[in-house]
């Protein structure tokens, strides 16, 4: 008998990060990093954990959206095989009534992603492998069976995807060994939050270089004069060869982006990230044509259909997948294949709650079994909140070490869940008590 | 003293429409038409009602998303003036933490639309005018102040929008008088649901023509042979001059759409609606180039940024706004202005719960004060569920009569709310009891 799912729990977990201005950028001044967190349990004792990352208010909507998926999971076969994983992905993304709420975008799609990622966590643990290796051991036929090719076939058919995966088969073992030995290149955003002082920026930028990072990132888009000064300071701090990416977090219209980046260009930014709306494919293409800095986007791109068009339109130089925005591993597999078809490097978005932990597996799998390259590829690293995970991402000398523990690495410690439950956990009770004693209003 | 909002109520309302296969199409076989319904109350006795339309499961997520907006409304000035309406729209769409859940798409954006539409209902009732007339009496400067031009300025600036509205000012009174006298052209989807028999299709198509409709619509996309037969029957039933639009509800990839529409083209479909994913701007452009039938889309288009690109890319011949998918009147005003700039007719999507009631106001306002034309324009009409509204849309001889009652026309009767509350209302209790007596499982 194959195991059956018998448990489905959802938790609203929030961290009061706005107290430190960690994570502050031009669009998000005061995030409280949060997770709508799901645990699925099978009757053989297997468990899978997954999450939606949000920045505070509205995390309860994401939790409600996950709960709506319960009937598609509970009492179904536990996702321990490639076939069961593909079937679960299909059930979670093809319910016509829930699809109406997107389709394939926003909270309901993120919720599907959380549950799908929990299923891959369960499957990989069941196999005793980290997710990157579980994926990298699957046959090309099993991998393409995970992908929903609907709306992709004008650009990528199942047969083309199969050809990409087969072409990367020969070197898999060698690349996996190299990955285990050397780790995967990382960059750090820790110096560049908009809420930080110049002094803190310079100090953290120097520490990043001393710590072995070959790339850092600055948030921009608040004020042009400030950004020119911060970029100048950062360039002086890191020297001429370290890459400095900049990130506008969707702050601009096309003309603003062109003007701003033309002004920053003398300091040689490596890329401009999210110059404008993540929905604006033609806008990104115009920004790319209109100024000299390479264009990156993806953390807020809703689904594979928008990624397809960003590539079709020549709108991006780097594809920034996010582990938890789209429909989990399955849809990210489609996006990795699209990027491979166009030869565009995938440089994942991370940070938040558990995003580093999750997305490292996808980048490593891409290296081993899809693109076959880590040239010009780098995973974002932000040193926040890792202490809350049982298998935190480990970055040393500017590289992510390949995870060896089974699963998807994004399992929160039970005591972290208990402490940060919203609104009833002790962290939030204490914060409300402190606010009330100051006469203010807590969230 | 200006009035203040002191009440904010949310209801989960569902109608068991799946019992009749009303509303069945290639993607949505069994919808239970539903509304996450919001009422805002001010301390001067004013009320505004608004809704998210959904098709059943997940309506509770939309209700949760509306509840998350409560702090942006409660204890703020009641939206009785253009300035208060603009400020409310800004608060509802610029909360950085909630924005993360879209941005500007999916359930959270639909929820903002419900609340914004409730605010316009309140404002228009306060002024004693139907919404179309309330809008049509606003100065061009007041109207552009309602629009969020972020991400639009590469295509439409505030000054260009102002010029469009000023150019339409001279004929406003004359067009409003003509509208009151003649009504606005409608088309009917009632004959064409995919779940209906050939006999029912033919009978309802003939009834539609006899009832004065110059256009009908058929759902397609299930099976090509069936669709060719149904299209042939419909063309024979309505004669050569009545327009027959077809609607695939996102069923196809680009090549499918081209093949299917090439086969249907001999029967002269007026447009192909939603041939593929609503996110696929470049896909719609390819469908438009690849076959002879005009292309329409919009009911699932997430926001003004995607509409902008559909127009930029020459992807659509008709823009199908939906009253309740985007951020309410304010964002639809942006979309009407974009369509006017490109000279593309707006033919609204309607049906569902209250969508006819709401969207008629926007099309009429477009005619009076934006495009200044009803040439090639037509509002969808579906004869379902109107009996539940206090001021239902009225269509006679194929035309929507201009509403005369103050407000937005989408106020549900108190007894309809009470009967259809999910899961506790008597309609759902009775359905569960019936299912249980048959041994089945109710939703």
UniProtKB/TrEMBL annotation, chains A, B:
Domain (Mandelate racemase/muconate lactonizing enzyme C-terminal) ranges: 198-294
Cofactor(s) of this protein: Mg(2+)
EC number assigned by the record: 4.2.1.68
Enzyme class: lyase
Keyword entries, A-Z: Lyase, Magnesium, Metal-binding
Keyword Repeat: no
Catalysed conversion reaction: L-fuconate = 2-dehydro-3-deoxy-L-fuconate + H2O
SMART domains: MR_MLE
PANTHER family: ENOLASE SUPERFAMILY, MANDELATE RACEMASE (PTHR13794), MITOCHONDRIAL ENOLASE SUPERFAMILY MEMBER 1 (PTHR13794:SF58)
Protein name, as recorded: L-fuconate dehydratase
Protein species of origin: Streptomyces yaizuensis
